[in-house]
């Protein structure tokens, strides 16, 4: 089996929710990540079984100095933001800058989460 290592970066709590969604977990509340939380998911890509390690790296400025430890050896980055929160979208440029300054930039994928947006077309209450 092939193992891909991907890092989740972006808005706190949203990236944790992405891991829960990909894992099929729907119960409970997503929580902020402190440091790094690692999840392993099985996937099938182009007919091959693949193990995907998702490294959910906390976005707190308090831990910014140790985040670069997680950048080496990653195969991709999922940049996560809340579409109902413009600040979370704009913070992605900081994550990209940090990634490019501290490592060889891996492939990137943007992921938005509906967050507080009602799927019927308005903001949730």
Provide an overview of this structure.
The chain has helices at 14-23, 64-67, 86-90, 92-102; strands at residues 2-10, 36-45, 48-57, 76-82, 107-113, 117-118, 122-123. It has 125 residues and is of the alpha/beta class. It has a single domain (2-114), classed as P-loop containing nucleotide triphosphate hydrolases (Rossmann fold, 3-Layer(aba) Sandwich). It starts with a strand and ends with a strand.
Draw up the topology in text.
Elements: E1 2-10, H1 14-23, E2 36-45, E3 48-57, H2 64-67, E4 76-82, H3 86-90, H4 92-102, E5 107-113, E6 117-118, E7 122-123
Parallel strand pairs: 1-3, 1-4, 4-5
Antiparallel strand pairs: 2-3, 6-7
Please outline what is shown here.
The protein is an alpha/beta fold. Helix content is 24%, strand content 38%.
């Amino acid at each position: 089996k092939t193992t891909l290592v991907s890092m989740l970066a972006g808005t706190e709590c949203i990236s944790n929710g992405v891991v829960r969604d990909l894992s099929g977990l729907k119960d409970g509340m997503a929580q902020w990540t402190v440091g790094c939380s690692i999840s392993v998911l099985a996937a099938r890509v182009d007919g091959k079984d693949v193990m995907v390690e998702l490294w959910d790296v906390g976005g707190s400025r308090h831990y910014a100095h140790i985040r670069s430890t997680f950048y080496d050896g990653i195969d991709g980055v999922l940049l996560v933001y809340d579409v109902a929160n413009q600040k979370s979208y704009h913070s992605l440029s900081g994550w990209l800058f940090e990634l490019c300054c501290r490592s060889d930039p891996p492939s990137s994928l943007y992921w938005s989460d509906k967050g507080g947006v009602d799927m019927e077309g308005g903001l949730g209450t």
